[in-house]
């Protein structure tokens, strides 16, 4: 409780970010610091990081070769590395979750490429982004054609030097093209506000949902008596065990509660605004954070498409370009080798819509029945690899044969 002999202007607007106010509310403003791992304790930030990392981790990645059309690669040695087990300690899902999480926290995510004695890639290992430094050798001090060096310090303090083609470097927004910006650093003020709000509400519940107030005394008290009264009054009136209990005041004392304006609609509106601003910076839609106030069944599907177009597409393109450039040989790149994340799982429509699109595709002659079945993870059927066109569903190469007399001679 705040002890005072005089009460002045109790209706004055209160700034939730005021350091003196935070101290009075039991929140140490210096303790509301924002760093990479510490930011995970803020609910909105954690929610955004979870949405992005979970989304990337569940997307299948496939290898292709573009040669007079597109052909899936099923026997390339990199396929099990990217799709199943990038290293002995991680599944592909855990690997991509870790990579995307670090990219969003630090602005950069680094993966060491492990080569065998024959120069083939045998493993991909995520590194702690906070322990990595990038150096640009633009004057040739190291007598190498390699201009970018990555220096990594492990947990034992040992330093490891990597050339540019030995590290997969995935970036967030970047000003110089060499390193990414941390969204958390850029949003530090907003995240601090969010953490302050959460701590205030937690303290509010710890105090038994009771508000703070001022105690007015018409006489005079020495500092020792004032402190003794304050301690005893807080003991009797604070905490969940004292919720709804009546505290007795001696004659001459008057308790004046401060109105609950910090937890009224304006406070909640400001808190909601902070949540929306953080979500917007990460490119996450509000329904993905379980905020369904403005959501309907139809606009959630539309928002999911917007999430892919506005947020996910650029992230996946960045991943795909870095993977192709660092993992494939130059000859393979020239031959049209590339990787692609399959986003069908997040854009997947209802079964009626999907089957209707398959029907149009098969009857239009631009996908086969087996290609449609593969999208539904169904077994291929004999004869299902032939392209058909509408009109008795004949093979496309036989279109027009019925109009010929006796066929070609």
UniProtKB/TrEMBL annotation:
Pfam families, per the entry: Phage_portal (PF04860)
Organism: Paraclostridium sordellii (Clostridium sordellii)
NCBIfam families listed in its UniProt record: portal_HK97 (TIGR01537)
Superkingdom, taxonomy of origin: Bacteria
Name of the featured protein: Phage portal protein
């Amino acid at each position: 409780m705040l002890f005072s002999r005089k009460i002045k202007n109790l209706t004055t607007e209160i700034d939730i970010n005021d350091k003196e106010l935070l101290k009075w509310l039991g929140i140490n403003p210096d303790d509301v610091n924002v760093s990479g791992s510490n930011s995970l304790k803020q609910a909105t930030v954690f929610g955004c990081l979870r949405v992005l990392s979970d989304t990337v981790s569940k997307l299948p990645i496939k290898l292709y070769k573009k040669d007079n059309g597109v052909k899936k690669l099923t026997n390339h040695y990199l396929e099990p590395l990217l799709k199943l087990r990038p290293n002995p300690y991680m599944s592909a899902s855990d690997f991509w979750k870790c990579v995307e999480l670090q990219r969003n926290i630090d602005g950069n995510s680094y993966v060491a490429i492990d080569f065998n004695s024959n120069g083939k890639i045998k493993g991909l290992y995520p590194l702690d982004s906070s322990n990595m430094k990038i150096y640009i050798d633009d004057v040739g001090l190291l007598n190498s054609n390699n201009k970018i060096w990555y220096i990594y310090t492990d947990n034992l303090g040992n330093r490891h030097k990597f050339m540019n083609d030995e590290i997969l470097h995935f970036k967030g927004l970047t000003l110089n093209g060499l390193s990414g910006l941390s969204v958390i650093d850029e949003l530090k003020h907003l995240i601090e506000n969010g953490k302050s709000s959460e701590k205030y509400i937690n303290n509010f519940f710890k105090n038994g949902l009771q508000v703070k107030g001022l105690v007015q005394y018409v006489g005079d008290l020495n500092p020792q008596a004032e402190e003794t009264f304050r301690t005893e009054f807080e003991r009797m009136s604070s905490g969940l065990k004292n919720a709804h209990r009546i505290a007795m005041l001696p004659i001459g004392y008057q308790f004046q509660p401060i109105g609950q304006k910090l937890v009224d609609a304006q406070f909640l509106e400001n808190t909601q605004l902070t949540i929306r601003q953080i979500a917007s910076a990460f490119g996450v839609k509000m329904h993905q954070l379980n905020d369904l106030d403005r959501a309907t069944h139809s606009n959630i599907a539309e928002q999911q498409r917007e999430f892919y177009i506005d947020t996910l597409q650029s992230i996946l393109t960045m991943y795909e370009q870095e993977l192709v450039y660092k993992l494939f040989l130059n000859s393979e790149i020239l031959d049209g080798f590339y990787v692609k994340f399959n986003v069908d799982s997040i854009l997947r429509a209802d079964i009626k819509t999907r089957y209707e699109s398959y029907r149009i595709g098969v009857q239009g002659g631009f996908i086969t029945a087996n290609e449609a079945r593969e999208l539904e993870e169904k077994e291929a059927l004999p004869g299902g690899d032939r392209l058909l066109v509408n009109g008795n569903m004949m093979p496309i190469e036989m279109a027009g044969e019925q109009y010929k007399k006796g066929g070609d001679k």
